[in-house]
Amino acid sequence: MRHPFEPARLIWGLTALTLATAYGLDALALWQAPGPWLFLALPAALILSGIVTAVRGRSRHPHTDASAAMEP
C-alpha cells in the first residue's frame, strides 16, 4: 500500500539530513560549519513544515472530495 505524499515531512527530513551532514563534517574537521546558521536552520525548518502542513490541510477538505460525492 502506498502512503500519501507529505511535503512537510520531506522538508523536515531533508533539513535533518543536511544538519546531520554539516555537523558530521564539522566534527571530522573537513568543513567549518557556521554555528548560528545551523542553529537557526532547525526552527526555520519546523516553521516551514508547519506552514506547508497548514496550507496543504486547508486545501484538502474531505467533504469536497469527488469520490465521496459518488457514494450513496
Task: Explain what the structure shows.
- The structure is a single chain.
- The chain has 72 residues and is mainly alpha-helical.
- 71% of the residues lie in helices and 0% in strands.
- The protein contains three helices and no strands.
- Helix 1 runs antiparallel to helix 2.
- The longest helix is centred in the middle third of the chain and has 25 residues.
- The chain is elongated and about 45 Å long.
- The mean pLDDT is 84.
Which descriptors apply to this entry?
72 residues; mainly alpha; 3 helices; elongated
Short description:
The chain has helices at 7-27, 35-59, 66-70.
Outline the secondary-structure elements.
Blueprint lengths: L6 H21 L7 H25 L6 H5 L2
Order of helices and strands: HHH
Indicate the structural class.
mainly alpha
Helix content: over 70%
Shape: elongated
- Rg: 18 Å
The largest β sheet comes out as:
none
